[in-house]
Amino acid sequence: MRNLKLTLAYDGTDFAGWQVQPGARTIQGELATAIGRITGEKVLPQGSGRTDAGVHALGQIASFQTESVIPAANLVVALNDTLPSSIRVLMVEEVALEFHARKSAISKRYQYRIYRDTICPPFLSRYVWHYPYPLDEEAMQAAGGRVEGEHDFTSFAAVDPERRREQAEVSNVRRIYSSLWRREGSELIYEVRGSGFLHHMVRNLVGTFLLVGKGTLRPGDLPNIIEKKDRSAAGATAPASGLYLVEVEY
């Protein structure tokens, strides 16, 4: 038995997220189908985390065990020949049997892109949040670091009524190692690295920072919002199109 680690990049626009869902097209489902066609095995590759519908990845990690003897380099070619062009396998590595894409991860890095010019090029519209309206970008940059450290991020977690009891039993404490905004040409980019992230957490952080940029909140309000542990205290959820899973560290 071999344990394989896959590094993936994908355009999440046309998918219902990572996780397999009945009647929906997902990244995990497409990958499982491709592996099955190549190896003849029925496997469900495990991802480092569940990216939401419309969210992209530059460095998602998946792992699965197989009895196939196909060399890793050949598997990269075979998978990319089988998968849709919006999903690419960048690397396949043989790893120890105890390695697990999610359980073995120690940190993740996400990026969020906001396009600031008046007209968004059509070839970028799927991959950014187009927001051409006035923003105090310096205030947003000042607010970024206010969420660093270990906190209970309940205020930035999606509320799922069907999973409320399950969520109540799971800790929402996460450690953010770095959180910063920067300008690159026409784009305002947010980059955050942490031990882990709650459902919609990065998009909810971005939506809250946007309120700082609009003057509705001040940078100093972020610690108070965290302390409240109340989703209604934070901003709206930013669109999925601007979010990327950049890297998973092990």
Task: Walk me through the structure.
The chain is α+β, with helices and mostly antiparallel strands. It folds into 2 domains: 2-95, Alpha-Beta Plaits (2-Layer Sandwich); 107-249, Pseudouridine synthase I, catalytic domain, C-terminal subdomain (Alpha-Beta Plaits, 2-Layer Sandwich). Helix content is 23%, strand content 29%. The chain contains 6 helices and 10 strands; from the N terminus they run βαββαβββαβαββααβ. Strands 1, 2, 3, 4, 5, 6, 7, 8, 9 and 10 form a 10-stranded mixed beta sheet that branches. Strand 8 and strand 9 (187-194) form a beta hairpin. The longest helix is centred in the C-terminal third of the chain and has 14 residues, at 201-214. It is globular and about 60 Å long. The relative contact order is 0.19. The mean pLDDT is 96.
Shape field: globular
Gap between N and C termini, in Å? 22 Å
Count of distinct structural domains: 2
| Average pLDDT number | 96
User: In CATH's first tier, which class of the largest domain applies?
Assistant: Alpha Beta
**What's the β-strand tally?**
10
What share of the residues does DSSP label as strand, in percent?
25-35%
Helical content band: 10-25%
The computed structural class is: alpha+beta
- The CATH homologous superfamily name of the largest domain equals Pseudouridine synthase I, catalytic domain, C-terminal subdomain
Q: How many alpha or pi helices? A: 6
The CATH topology of the largest domain is: Alpha-Beta Plaits
Major sheet attributes: 10 strands, mixed
Give the low-pLDDT segments: none
